[in-house]
Amino acid sequence: MRKWGPLVAVCLGTFMLLLDVTIVIVALPDIAHSLNASLSQLQWVIDGYALMLAALLLGAGAAADVVGRRKVYVAGTALFAAASLACGLAPNAGALVAMRAVQGLGATAMFATTLSLLAATYQGRDRSVALGVWGAVSGGAAALGPILGGLLTQGLDWRWIFFVNLPVSVAAIVLTLRAVGESRGGPGARIDWAGTATFTVFAGATTYAVIRADAVGWGSTRTAATLALAVVALALFVLVERRSAQPMLDLALFRSGSFAGVMVGSVALNAAAFGFLPYTSIWLQTLLGLSPVRGGLVLVPLALTAFVAAALGGRLLHGAPYRLVIGLGLLLIGAGALAQSFLDAGSGWPALTAGLAVAGAGVGLVSPAIASAALASVPPRQAGTAGGAVNTLRQLGYALGVAVFGTLTASRMEHSLRGAGLADPRGAARALAGGGAHQLLARVPRAQRPALDRALHAAFASGLNTAGAVAGVLGLLAGAAVLLLVRGPAPAAAGAPGRSAGPGGDAALASGEKLHT
């Protein structure tokens, strides 16, 4: 236990914080009913958390190098626990969104330090094992979130998806203080405040613009102004990082095709695999009438195949180039998403099973490999930057995926409902996407309800098909990009597994030739 205690402590926190990225998915209909939340508020319940992870992760990593990684991890876990309590006690949707953002801030402090704590604790093959376990936990947490969320929502109440974090947080803090040693960055480490601020504005403005575009129009002045702000913030971020002596993200890394390919894969992983699942969950519960538990169990094929692929992939694909493992995984995610895009008004939950299983297999392959691939694509001294970039872009991909697919789903629903005789197809589409099917049916005379019910089923299926098709194309394109861009080392650069390649770790990890999980 002494040897692997730090790994258990880090993985416990990682599992909890990543579980909370997706655990709310199955609870969305209950949240909408309990707090009278709109579609955009439901999107922000998810994205407020994911966006904080994406926007502040690199800056938090730099802060941890200055203050101390263990100290930041423990403080983040404590903040995460306090915000979880506040989320569970939220009296309205606005308060829940705000506390989800605070919860995301605590999760950011935790997540920013996970890889650096493992890198400081383990060397050689032990580090490869630790990274493999951490990657499997990361993928499994996101996949298990909807299932556990359904069990807690139906068995207790949706508020318990947040209350359950409290005992786990206490355990994580106690174990960390007992088993994990303190570590810091090198001399002269500092926080890149300007880079953190500009990247936060870019990520927030982009997500806000996409979420609001369906309500106010893509061509509206508000959407155009918000997107312009995002572009300016991104340009300033690039300018700041290029001029900074210690940038939080060294943009020169993107000159490497391998690093750029891994980053593309990071964005696509969470976006394509999980970005449209919130709307699938709403469809399952509000249109098909499944309970939260049954709605969560529908997603078991995704979680199960993710675990199996992560566990077996490391053994069966031992020694395989990263580009093949990650590229194949993304292609499977894309194929799985496409397989979920053939719904119609009469479809039931079994129509999703095969696609979910295929996508889960892809998640299981990519998640354990992508962090190691990022570390392998850069010099050991830049391992922290690479690991932070992977986690940042994964969460940004999820936040943007939820926003984009929600907008696409609602837009396609509106198009489908224009022939249903509704006075406000746009409002009806947003209400339907937000779980308001029963309210829409209650507004029409009883004799008209069967026809409207069929129209709502057809509209939601059409919206999900559009989201699934776009997610599928994204996964396939990202898989192709990884296969084309990511390259293994020259034969002379390959080292034997377990031999030291310097301060950063073993030769296999540093070169990127081998996959150890």
Automatic annotation (TrEMBL):
GO MF entry, a single one: transmembrane transporter activity
Database matches in Pfam families: MFS_1
Entry's localization field: Cell membrane
Record keyword Ribosomal protein present: no
Keyword flag Transport: yes
GO cellular component, one term: plasma membrane
Domain Major facilitator superfamily (MFS) profile residue range list: 6-490
Keywords: Antibiotic resistance, Cell membrane, Membrane, Transmembrane, Transmembrane helix, Transport
Name of the molecule in the record: MFS transporter
Organism in which the protein naturally occurs: Actinacidiphila oryziradicis
